[in-house]
Design a protein that fits this description.
The structure is a homodimer. By secondary structure, chain A is α/β, with parallel strands linked by helices. Helices cover 55% and strands 12% of the residues of chain A. Chain A has an eight-stranded mixed sheet, with helices on both faces.
């Protein structure tokens, strides 16, 4: 949907999430302005962009021409008013504090052209609370990405009570045009969809570890080398649908008692998050993946994610 | 570890799991004998093997020569004693009923050479219960695969109380030599590792669906197009380790209160498993993946899983 590409996107907040958004838009030739209240953070983010693109050129993921083009359409701007003056779409990725986001959205509403979409990357707050009472509430939406945004296409989408449905539809169309997969929710719940499901996995994985049923590499292997492979190709419901000859209805019809027993056996309390155990987990993960340090693990992740997106793209998935 | 390849494997039970095991062993040139108490089931399974290999030849995943070799080293045998007479390793994939498996393991113990490994694919039962009191308890192990076994390498491993640790080590070495990833547990828990984690995901996904927070395709998208991509490349603990500059200890140190709040908000009761809702989910999944029927979805899954395993293999993962 190239017709839905915005001419000018402004990113407000240049941390780990904000920097990933640069690549989402710049790879489609969209002019991207990066703002952060800390000018040094803008510089660090533009440095990261150069290094990350250079590594991708070396890996053969990005051509030298595409790299030049992406760098050419991205600029930093320390002045908020100037950063917002010509935006068609604003993606806010500030700290997760309601008062910070409310104040910032008031600025966005005041300083952008009247028809610009104002989207929040919030991973925890209710867009209804962030946008409530703004003159431009009708154009405010939640667009919560996963980390890293340019390699994980799903984006959770929700409007505030006063959001114009057309604005939400337009935000979804813009993100689709940029290769993302907008995921619409009907209402706010704590953690949205993805962080709830992730919390369920983290809770059970840490319970199994803390109770000594298996070590961290073993627990992670059933995810990395089994469950997640099915989920990454056909989703959880897709995997359920392939597990009985007549599909998901037959599957749960047959195994509902086993599932119910197992679900009732899962520990619903949070795990202990024991720091000494977690330290050992981090080292075991690095040893398993053959890397030293978090940065090297992130690069390994991103290389594999890039190839995995290419694989999925060949099969009409994003 | 080709030195650990067994000369002769016997598969007892030729259903969906048993048939996947054929390919695990036959692709390494191991002689595979397939037994099922129902001779017609043996025929259906060998027919499936031919069709599945033919499709893989067409897709370019398997050479015509490799296909011929795999078919050449696989044979059906309706007589249990004859099927077991020369086995070095037996993989049992019978129905999940304790008395069925106990009786079968008594037969396996009686009819196999004394040094053969006797492994159960059980997904629910305790190998300690299955093997208890057998003369050959020392050589009995659980080796629980994921479906399909030849495309998902992780295999959960556990011995009975009387299992010789050397037998468990040998079973792990045999499976590693065949390209699987043995995952050792220290004791029996309901659902082992993988089905517990899967139950946690299914429970939350169905709760979100049944409470109307989003539709099935949206809920599945945060898994298929975000969370599972990270998990499939670096696991859950790996993903946690990349989410803070200083790794997993810092990550959970910082977000423990948010995680605890969210975990306490998850509904711990089983979902309703509403059949009419599930029927709609199955249809939505098929429409999303561009297929009609479960068989076509399974083929799509297996094509993508084959490519995903090739991707992971290039990065030293299985």
């Amino acid at each position: 949907m190239p017709g839905n590409l915005p001419a000018h996107v402004t990113l407000v907040g240049a941390g780990v999430i904000g920097r990933g958004w640069i690549r989402v838009f710049a790879r489609h030739g969209v002019a991207v302005t990066v703002h952060d209240p800390d000018p040094a953070q803008i510089d660090r983010t533009l440095d990261w962009l150069e290094r990350d693109l250079a590594a991708d050129v070396t890996a053969g993921f990005v051509s030298a021409e595409a790299r030049t083009k992406m760098l050419g359409c991205t600029r930093g701007e320390a002045d908020l008013a100037r950063a917002l003056a010509v935006a068609d779409y604003v993606q806010e990725s500030a700290p997760e504090k309601l008062e910070v986001k409310r104040a910032l959205f008031a600025d966005l509403d005041r300083l952008t052209p009247a028809e610009a979409i104002l989207a929040s990357s919030t991973s925890a707050l209710d867009i209804g609370e962030i946008a409530r009472g703004l003159a431009g509430e009708r154009r405010c939406v939640m667009a919560h990405p996963f980390n890293p945004p340019h390699l994980l296409p799903a984006v959770e989408m929700l409007g505030a009570a006063g959001t114009d449905p057309a604005a939400l539809t337009k935000a979804c169309a813009i993100l689709s045009a940029c290769g993302q997969i907008p995921v619409r929710m009907t209402r706010y719940v704590k953690g949205f969809l993805g962080n709830r499901i992730q919390a369920a996995v983290v809770r059970e994985a840490l319970h199994l570890l803390e109770s000594g049923v298996a070590d961290a590499v073993a627990i992670d292997a059933v995810i990395r080398d089994a469950l997640a492979l099915r989920w990454a190709t056909i989703g959880n419901f897709g995997a359920n649908h392939t597990n009985a000859d007549e599909g998901i209805t037959q599957y749960f019809g047959r195994y509902e008692p086993s599932f119910a027993t197992l679900m009732n056996d899962l520990d619903s309390a949070p795990p202990r998050f024991d720091p000494s155990l977690l330290r050992a987990v981090g080292l075991a993960v690095e040893a398993r993946e053959g890397v030293t340090g978090v940065d090297a693990l992130i690069r390994r992740r991103d290389v594999m994610l890039t190839e995995l997106r290419q694989l999925k793209h060949r099969h009409d998935q994003g």
